[in-house]
Each structure stands twice: as C-alpha cells, then as structure tokens.
Amino acid sequence: MNDILTVSGLNKSYVDFSLKDVTFSLPEGCITGFIGVNGAGKTTTLRTLLGLTNKLSGKIQFFGLDMDKNEREIKDRIGIVLDGGGFYEELSLSEMKGIISSAYTSWSEQDFKRYMDMFSLDPKQKINSLSKGMRMKYALALALSHNAELLIMDEPTSGLDPLVRGQLLKILTEYMENGGKGVFFSTHITSDLDKIADMLIMIDNGRIVFREEKDTLLDTYRIVKGDSGALTPDTRKLFLSISETDFGFTGITKQISEVRSYIPNIMVERPTIEDIMLGNIGGEK
Ligand SMILES: Nc1ncnc2c1ncn2[C@@H]1O[C@H](COP(=O)(O)OP(=O)(O)OP(=O)(O)O)[C@@H](O)[C@H]1O
C-alpha cells in the first residue's frame, strides 16, 4: 500500500505551544482519525501540513510530492474542510462556489449539486446567514466536488446533528469505495471513529503518542476494575492510568496477562477509543 501522506520531523513553535518532531504516515485506502484533547495540537498540525502556517522544520509529502515544491498541484488533489471555512461572508453559496471551483482543475458541478441537494442547502442563501452546521455542510459539499484523492478535515462532525453526522459518515465510506483515496480528520466525537476509522493517530502536547490500526488498538488495551487493596507500587506500574473511588479502582492497561496474574478477582472490559485516548494522557496512579 502506498502512503498518501508522509510527515517527518515536523516542528513548529508558538509562544506557549510547539509541535515536537511530529512524524507519521497515512496509507492509501484508509480513513484515519486524528485524536487528542483540547489544545493537543490537532488544528496546528493540520494547518501546518497544508502550508497555512509556517513550519520551523520537517518534511511533508503528499502523494510522494514534496509540499514545499508542489503546493499548487497537491492542493488541487486535496479536499479541505477547516473550521470557519474562510468564506466571503457577503456572497451567496453559489457565488462563493464560483470563486472556489475556478481554482480546481477537476471541478464537478454535478457532484456539487448532488451534495447541495443532499444537505438541503439553497445556492441563493448568503454565507453570513448560515448556521454552524449548514456552514460545515457547505464546506463539505465544496471539498467533495473536485475529485479529491485525500480529504483533510478539522472537526467535520462538530456542529452537525446526528442525522447529518450519519449522512457524512456514509458519504465518507462511499468516497473510499473507489479506491486509491484517503480521509484524515480530527474529531472529539470518538463514537464516529468507532464506526468508520481504520487507523487512529493520537497527539498530546504537540507530540504523536501513537499511530495504530483501530482494531489492533482495541485489542491491545483492556479496562480493569478491582479492589483498591490490590494496588501496590508494583501493580500500579502495569496501568497507564488509574482512577479510584470508595468502591475500588478502574485502570487501563496494555499488560492484561500480567495484571491477571498479579491481581485476583478483577473485571475486565474492552475499552472504547475514548478510554484509550484518556488513558494515554495519564491520570492519577
Ligand atoms: N495562532 C496561534 N498563536 C499562538 N498560539 C496558538 C495559535 N494557534 C494555536 N495556538 C496554541 O496552540 C495550542 C494547540 O492548539 P490547537 O488548536 O492546535 O489544538 P487542538 O488539538 O486543535 O485543540 P481543539 O481540540 O481545542 O481544537 C493551544 O495551546 C493554542 O492556544
């Protein structure tokens, strides 16, 4: 499988935050979720990858092409959905589309109309009168209408009602069916990832914590519940994070066989993606 995007040694600094040696790749044919808590660096990473803000150092290649030298060709091949959209507020949806579509070599008016109808958007409506959800749907319609080979989206499901979120997840799955494509999107709504992600990349405090196939991740971690009396300095080391109440402890571990052999009478459950994310940012131990 070819990599559709490779990022190596990406560094960027703001006054109080930096991306630190961000390195990962996205294989073709995968829907990849980009997760992390508020302020972890998801938006900064996406904006830096797209050349919307300067990097300090690092190499970014889309479709095997260096972003520094081929930005125009690469952008033609990517569908981008960012918060806000960067639209001219006074224009109608149709007028704004006219400007955006002229920048792409393979714009499909037919696809655009189909998505506008599907999302019940009126081409005559002004951008500044769109609700947050409608704005997101409009940005999606634009991103999906120029035969992009990769979709990069920052929190595309936020602000969408469950019905439209479901529609979007279905559209993304259909989009992938043609082959040779990729989707990379950040989200807080980890239940969306349970449904459609093939791969997950987690960032915390500007560093990549893991990049792993979703099924492998869900097989690797376990939630353990037991009596707090079983927690010793040594057994605590078997957990990534532990929370304790009067009724006992709940911990997340990657070493379930060791936990079973050292701690009797435990309850073991499969984790959710959210459990894995929270476990990896630590917690009282
Ligand atoms: N233009 C900027 N100037 C200075 N600091 C910034 C700028 N943009 C972002 N930051 C800081 O970088 C850090 C990471 O922000 P970023 O928006 O990338 O996080 P995020 O993971 O997308 O968070 P969220 O889930 O809340 O959207 C934050 O501490 C933020 O304050």
UniProtKB/TrEMBL annotation:
Record-linked InterPro entries: AAA+_ATPase, ABC_transporter-like_ATP-bd, ABC_transporter-like_CS, ABC_Transporter_VariousFunc, P-loop_NTPase
Task: Provide a Gene Ontology MF annotation, just one.
Answer: ATP binding
In its keyword annotation, does this UniProt entry include Nucleotide-binding?
yes
Q: Which SMART domains does the protein's record reference?
A: AAA
Which residues belong to any copy of the ABC transporter domain? 4-230
Instruction: Kindly give the SUPFAM superfamilies that the UniProt entry links to this protein.
Output: P-loop containing nucleoside triphosphate hydrolases
- Provide the alphabetized UniProt keywords: ATP-binding, Nucleotide-binding, Transport
Cite the Pfam families for this sequence.
ABC_tran
**Gene3D superfamilies given for it?**
P-loop containing nucleotide triphosphate hydrolases
Q: What is the protein's given name?
A: ABC transporter ATP-binding protein
